[in-house]
Amino acid sequence: xxxxxxxxxxxxxxxxxxxxxxxxxxxxxxxxxxxxxxxxxxxxxxxxxxxxxxxxxxxxxxxxxxxxxxxxxxxxxxxxxxxxxxxxxxxxxxxxxxxxxxxxxxxxxxxxxxxxxxxxxxxxxxxxxxxxxxxxxxxxxxxxxxxxxxxxxxxxxxxxxxxxxxxxxxxxxxxxxxxxxxxxxxxxxxxxxxxxxxxxxxxxxxxxxxxxxxxxxxxxxxxxxxxxxxxxxxxxxxxxxxxxxxxxxxxxxxxxxxxxxxxxxxxxxxxxxxxxxxxxxxxxxxxxxxxxxxxxxxxxxxxxxxxxxxxxxxxxxxxxxxxxxxxxxxxxxxx
Length: 335
Hints:
It contains 7 helices and 14 strands. By secondary structure, it is of the alpha/beta class. The protein folds into 2 domains: 6-74, no CATH class; 92-334, Rossmann fold (3-Layer(aba) Sandwich), CATH 3.40.50.720. It has a 7-stranded parallel beta sheet with strand order 10-9-8-11-12-13-14, with helices on both faces. Strands 1-3-4-5 form a 4-stranded antiparallel beta sheet, with no helix packed on it. The protein has a 3-stranded antiparallel beta sheet with strand order 2-7-6, with no helix packed on it. α1 (101-112) links the parallel β8 (92-96) and β9.
């Protein structure tokens, strides 16, 4: 929403009526006069002698007959931002693990920002639902089945994407498994499984995405690591920390190797988030409570808070950022 710092609403736009929720009629003496806007986000609606704060919402006022109607709508999930260019317009993105959690949030937000999204996951039913949801919201998406540990499936995912859309601009290596899925934290089988999905899967994704990005003239890769890539933790399989540390350093190596191809590579490190579908021990509230108490913001993160960090790194706004980490942890690593 593009707007000056102060916008007079002497003649409110009738075209915004379909967006209103919670319509409330008011007498003419409550005529809206000023809408305060800061960086495209409505800060407050002023009615004669009355001020309604609205920091994370848009407020519209529309005249109807002898009275005015005003409404409020939460704009965070707005699929078509008004008055500004969408941040990923014309881009084609593959998001692994896109059927659930952070991956689903990334897919939805990328589509709202103009990207054509390939939702890649082993969960075909849920992945197709996400792609269908994006389509229902007016976005462009398709599902492709992808086991990130399979080189053959990676080759097919890249081939089908470039075949359908002619290019690949963005890869988000989001797929991963928890370090608490096996109570035996010294299990060799769990070591192999975690490292294969969390580390090898990221390597294979970059290996096969880079040639397609070269053909497109460049691209952006965002690898999802974790605060566990910086520090150790109790009662988690050490393969989880090892795999996330590998993603962190691997991202730096790829950033250096592919910078001259116009390909940027960065990693995002979520802190304590809602439990993963594969979490067991770490999903226990008793296990989580003491860890959350060490987070300065005293809460777990939300998936969209990570997704917006990924969006920034994938967009051209981050055109001079490569080989670095973005931590989304409520201040945990600052302590």
